Amino acid sequence: MNRVRQLRLGLLAVVLAAAAASAARAGVTVEFRPQASGDDTFAMSSESLYSNATSYWPYRNNDRLPFARFSCQIPAGAVITEARLKLCSNGGKGDASPATVRLQVVDRDDCPLLSTPNPFTYAVTPLYVDWVLPGAWTADAWYASPDLSALVQDFIDRPGYQFGHHIGIRGSNVSGSYKVAYQWDYGDHSSAPILEVTYTGGEAKVDLLMADPEVRIGQKIYCRTFNVNDDDTLEAVLDGAVIFSRSGSQVQAEEMFTADYSNLTAGEHTLAVRVVAPDRTVRGQSVRTWTTLHNGVPHVGINVNNALCIDGEPYLPITSWMFDKDRFSDPLSTTINTLLSVGWYPEVNLPNWQDYLGRGQAQGWYAAGPGSWAGKASGHVIDSDLDSLAAYVAATKDHPALLTWFWDDEPDLYADNAAGTRLLHETTHQYDTNHPTWVNLVGYNFTHGDQGWSNNRAKEYCYLYNEPLLGERTLMADIVGLDYYPHEYSTHYDFCNLSDYLLAIDRLRAWNYDLVPTASFIQPCDEAAPGNPRLGSRTWSPPPTGPQVKNLVWLTLIHEVKVLSWFHHFEWVTNDPRPNLSAMQETVAWITDLTPVILSAGEDVTTGVSVTPADGYRVDIMTRLDDQENLYVFSGEVRDWGDPVYIWPDPEDTSTAYFNIPQGSFTARFDVEGLPAGTAIAVYGEDRAITSEAGYFEDTFDVHDVHIYVVPAGGAPLGGDANLDGQVDLDDFVILKQNFGAANASWNQGDFNGDGDVDLDDFVILKQTFGN
Q1: What is the pLDDT of residues 598-643, one digit of tens each?
Q2: Does the bond joining 543 to the residue before it have cis omega, within 30 degrees of 0?
Q3: What is the DSSP string of 212-236?
Q4: pTM greater than 0.90
């Protein structure tokens, strides 16, 4: 299971736990628990003590009232057969006598967090249950209330009730002294109150997690179901045709199916995913409608692997940021295939965007943009001129160089921009469904040392978290990216390093449920050199080396980013010769060659592959298959720098500055399920091969190394193919000739029968397969 899938499932653990008994057999029992400090409290008239470790159930009088709230994931129409509140005692008690607490429900369709405003004065419904708590109030023991089914039934029968609404339970003193129980903030939160509910019947619930379909060629759709009977059927219907069906007894808490849109014609489309009873009664459903303006496959679309495609063929954009129109002959032009955001013009207007597209087309490039445009509002995106946006779309949507729409960069630098960002996306697709939209976010917000304010800003732009803000789970665009420069800011922020960068990518994907392609910027050079006023108070860091640039690119792809952008915007405007140019050119050549492999489906790899580096080291991998079923293992070494990060005896002499990166090489073992001993495994681009042992192979890594291994289909390459290029020809004969007579030889030296020698037997193998 890949890391993003693990993160995604972790984020949904609460929901899936509630859905463990998704088939509505007689007496489905679920437990609901608080998930935050604001989910339980004891309140006084002056304040809510929601962050305490303990609460009074009850207090000696009603000057302090305990509350707990629970997300009530019970289908409407269900019959509650039993419900109990469970408290974990901390042993605190006023005396050894029993105490009676009266339990009532807060009179709200959806009880808000109990932190602010203070819930002390909240009204409660008339129904109540009195609970006599024993005098023997034992520390760490759990106590269960009498049956609260009438209270819970009354709550879910409210006209405004919706699945997932929060039920708030208040306690008040009827008699006796105080009893103390734990709140959510105690320990690991496992001692917080629990609401256990058993129910029967009710509506089925269908919840879809899916990308916006307008520019999709196809997509994976995740479906969470609740309260499905064994004799029900879960089915997905696209424009009246059933595209997925599963018996209720087989339905899992989360199902995934693939929707193919490649044959749809222009017009309105409807996807309905529903739970159907044996008599064809629809017990619950979720419906999505959308309109496309194109027939069949969009000119630039997104396939089921979240890869961009041009006329259906996978394409991996490698862009530059605001590449100056006057520098198209610069050597940097050999490192891109796509422009991003309009280059330097005296004015920002539609004619200049059209001119930029035309200049890019003449270079053989695509372009994403405009980035800067006449109607763009500064700071507050929602104030942008949508008529101006529509004019840009109308004028250039059919331009052959247009790849994607890119309206704004880092809108999350400013507050309250999520709704405006989404509005630009929606408005674009009113006029064009042949090109995706793309937005770029501040990468540091996804980690930033896990500062709450920073993470919360990022979550406003992420699908799994922005429903409270936007009214429903919302994707910001068809492509969502970030920029994060682990080298440039390593001397300024203690959290800024490779590990944090990769965590930011993983969170961006996971927090958007991996529904859309992810984009990322790569730093190939200094953003600001010593003395540059752009540095401000920030400490200068040395520029990355060629191996670091290559490592950064491939780790980014290993973490399944689908769009790459170079950020050489400031320093390379004047620097010549270009630092790291050769490393960038080699990387682009490799990516271009391997694009079909990189963008293939990860789930097609059924062979188990794992890597075990030496203790204290880290290697990340990605596995893919080519069209001949050869297994590619992409690997990158992850090594963070120590402290201090830089040393500069002379601040003007950049050669004296360096990253304090721990040195040393190590061996990593790659376990490959079913790998035969003696298999020659090519190392892409390195003119060498590794001979495997049974079930594994090993290789050496140095600082920031990248290795791409090609494990031949069936475990063995074509006999005689010394250079593993898929054919036996004169090149292989030359290799064998040069190594003829060698001992302790490997496959790529001509030892085709695996006996360690290059001799006549190997020549016979080559002769028999020559020309294949």
Answers
A1: 999 999 999 999 999 999 999 999 999 999 999 999 999 999 987 6
A2: no
A3: --TTBSEEEEEEEEESB-TT-EEEE
A4: no
